[in-house]
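Hi R.,

Here's the chain you asked about this morning:
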Amino acid sequence: MIPLRDNIPSTRPPYVNYALIGINVLIFLWEKSYGAHLQEIIQFLGFVPGRFLSLLGQGSVTLAVVPIFTSMFMHAGWLHLIGNMWTLFIFGDNVEDTLGRGRYLVFYLVSGVASLIIFFLFSSHSRIPLVGASGAIAGVMGAYFSLFPGARVLTLVPIFIIFTVIELPAYLFLGFWFVLQFFQGAFSVVGFAGGGGVAWWAHVGGFLAGMGLIQLFAPGRAGNPLKWRS
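And the predicted structure, written out as tokens:
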């Protein structure tokens, strides 16, 4: 399912959200400038769980921590970038509207870190670099789920070989997305799915972090999503 737009207008321009999208795009273009050396850049600036442990053991805290943040702004390909940035564009403006610019930026970064922590717990010895904004964006989606469950999301849905556009409640769209990530992650743990290079547990961790953090960042604004369906 591909979200096309929601029905909640922002009350002010989401400058931080636009800036995050712009920074991700610029960094991706910078990555592409390395051509054949791109994989070296991803290996160096991506988050590699096994290397993280090794660097901490050596006392190289800075080298261990920096990729946690640089990995959030890197992407492996055009589809990876476009999918992430489009999702952030759809859901991020309303969360920024609720939190304000400064708190939204902090919320975004903390959600990204939380998503990597959960990913690390399931892949602590992996030597494969993780890159992408999807963990932080999953946090934004979790916040949206808590703040605007009754919003309507115009969605492109594939039915067999035909695509159709339907309007879904946000709690249904985002809830289905989360359940899909969770089961894909669970299947990858037990060996029934290869994962396809997707960090399912980073998505799960980011979404849950977003739902929890929004209670701290916007107390009183978020409640039980299952009670708000209108």
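The two ends are 22 Å apart (CA to CA).

Let me know if you need anything else.
M.
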